[in-house]
Amino acid sequence: MTLENYSELPSIIPVLKEKELIYPFMIIPIFLEDKNDIIAVQKAINDHSLLFVSINDEVGTYGTIGTIIRKVTLPEGRVKILFQGLVRGKILEITDKNPTLALIDKVESHTDVDKKELSALLETLKEHIITLSELSPFFPKDFIKIIDNNSDADRIIDIIASSLKLPTEKGYELFKETDTHKRLVKLIHFILEEIESIKLKNELSKKVMEQVQEANREHLLKQQLKLIQQELGITNELEEEIREYYEKLEELKPYMPENAYKEIKKQIDRLSRMHPDSAEATTTQNYIEWALEIPFGKYAKEEFSIDELQERLDKDHYGLKKPKERIVEYFAAKELAKKRNNEFSGAILCFVGPPGVGKTSLANSIAKSLDRKLVRIALGGLEDVNELRGHRRTYIGAMPGRIAQGIINAKEMNPVMVLDEIDKIARYRGDPTAVLLEILDPEQNKEFRDLYLNFDLDLSKVLFIATANDPSTIPAPLKDRMEMIFVGSYTPQEKFEIAKRYLIPQEMKKHSLKKSEVSISDKALMEIIDKYTKEAGVRNLRRVIAKIMRKAALEIIKGKEKVRISIKNLEEFLEKGYFGIESVDKKDKIGVVNGLAWTPVGGDVLKVEAVKYRGRGQVILTGQLGDVMKESAHIAYTLIKVLIDTKKIKIKERTKEPIYSKYNIHIHVPEGAIPKDGPSAGITMATAIASLFAEKKVKADIAMTGEITLTGDVLPIGGLKEKLIAAYKAKIKKVLIPQKNYERDLDDIPDEVKNGLEIVPVKRIEEVLAHSLT
């Protein structure tokens, strides 16, 4: 169908939306996937109507009216049409959306300019096209013939505009213009812009080529200059550096291993033969500078005083009696071995305890008393073995491992090196544990090989100290190399003393406050410790004190002479968010027992709740319990059934069948979102179940910890100190603990806690029930 036999424009015809502009003279394939577009095409074919194609389908949009020459169905529901543009058109009104049908009218160009002026513009256009075709090989000179052989200016404009590949916005601006004169002027303007753009690109390309040629010329001249300098005996900058490397190497030669000397000299020799601007020269120079930074032969003074160590530990740390004693004993044995010319083969010290109790600061005190540098290597999350051993130089960005870097930073071969969080190493690339075993073994660390340096380092003089939160996660071979020194939780009184002696003065200094400007009453400080912190150490306590100091600094800067913090105005400085261990419920209840738990951040009071309801003797466990606690629950249930059968637990309810066969038991440990596990809840669960069946209340002021066997024996547990401190904070009166823990661990419990609790040792479940049930 042609436009001539379709004379009823404006008329309603289908609209097709396309990303690219289609000009009236074009015959172009269009690929369709959208369902509405395919329906629109089919309607045009069925109605023998024209099709309107535009970049938009809104009222006022210009586009091309044309006809469908051919339609081809493609796989996956797609359609291809061959579209012939006939004339420009415009949407006057949208009549339907699915598919889009619109009232379309054709658009014809007009101009008030006479033919002479149009001819002059066409000549100008021809000149610019010749210039453009000379600059760009992609714009053929054939367009000159099109201008000469065509009398329709609008057709000339459309053909040239389609070949310019203008941006859609500019192309549409030219497309919708109806004044032929203005269209020609705009087209000439766009061609001039294109000419300038191509000239700029060509100029930039020329400059780039000149720079490349200049770089090649400069390299050639440098080579010639190097030869001239060699003839004249003049050395360049790199040669001067190489000479300095040789001198420094010879100075260190008496103190370094032979393999280190050979490797470094080999690399300096290689560097001297390389071009100074090559990438390999830079890499080799980096290696030489790293290697020559190793402090071969430099050691801190070996003078040592036990009294000085004891004084430093007492000065820097309040409490921690047992850990400080063990540190002093360790170094006393080491010093005695040195005086008697014996080799000391003591295990590596590993400080184990919750966060914030002073593990790293103990190592810092040791370093100060020994007058050695402290190097801290954080192992938390370490998963690549090369982080410790170094990367091979074949890798981009390779550098020495953390151990070698620590020695370089310390500038001495015998620093105190703290391996922090040794319990948190991971495995991803290689096994960091294997490298740590080599580092910590006195028999192997004399010849520790760093892969980057590619020579041996003597680590035998380095004093290694490890820290950990949870010793159970330390690999067994690694644990065998270390001696665990447990740094336990602080009691409220110890925290009080630490805050007064260390934290408050330190935070005052950090916040530029004077002692005369801020005061915290003893009662307010105890309130902060009891209600605003829940931790084994004092790290969070420091944060709370820092918060008070910031607010105090604000008051001072506003003109207040002195800030006093008391129990009355404490909430003005701190919010009401209490995080302390709450006092236990004072009301006796059936099936509710206070258990004691150890966590990586200290002890806690853990309630165990149990209820019974009609059923068939099933046990339901909730509260995110681990496998160990689940087994404890089943053992406790079996044990209580045995005690019921043997009449050791008296049952009030009279039944022919055993009472436990008539009821289901549900045991729950509150705070179900927190995972819980550990071998210390057996007697707690057994007491809760016995309370249900005997219908006796459990005393609210009693707490307990201990594992149970099927025969009723109470087994010892770990973390007793943290658990008893938690019970003390929760204002528990009596605590039941295993007999073996009472005999073995009671000396480690602070006097403050022992005096505030009635600690009762138990060996059998019968004793537990006698103490806990009313």
UniProtKB/TrEMBL annotation:
Superkingdom: Bacteria
CDD domains given in the database record: RecA-like_Lon (cd19500)
Catalytic reaction annotation: Hydrolysis of proteins in presence of ATP
Residues annotated to bind ATP: G353, P354, P355, G356, V357, G358, K359, T360
UniProt key word Cytoplasm: yes
Enzyme class: hydrolase
Domain Lon proteolytic: 587-774
The keyword Hydrolase appears for this protein: yes
Compartments it resides in: Cytoplasm
A cellular-component GO term for this protein: cytoplasm
Its job: ATP-dependent serine protease that mediates the selective degradation of mutant and abnormal proteins as well as certain short-lived regulatory proteins. Required for cellular homeostasis and for survival from DNA damage and developmental changes induced by stress. Degrades polypeptides processively to yield small peptide fragments that are 5 to 10 amino acids long. Binds to DNA in a double-stranded, site-specific manner.
Designated gene of the protein: lon
EC number: 3.4.21.53
Pfam families: AAA, Lon_C, Lon_lid, LON_substr_bdg
Induction remarks: By heat shock.
Origin species: Nautilia profundicola (strain ATCC BAA-1463 / DSM 18972 / AmH)
Annotated GO MF terms: ATP binding; ATP hydrolysis activity; ATP-dependent peptidase activity; sequence-specific DNA binding; serine-type endopeptidase activity
Annotated signal peptide: none
Family note: Belongs to the peptidase S16 family.
All residue ranges annotated as the Lon N-terminal domain in the record: 10-195
Keywords assigned by UniProt, alphabetized: ATP-binding, Cytoplasm, Hydrolase, Nucleotide-binding, Protease, Serine protease, Stress response
Any one Gene Ontology BP term: protein quality control for misfolded or incompletely synthesized proteins
Assembly and binders: Homohexamer. Organized in a ring with a central cavity.
Residues in coiled coil: none
Catalytic residue positions: S680, K723
Protein name as annotated: Lon protease
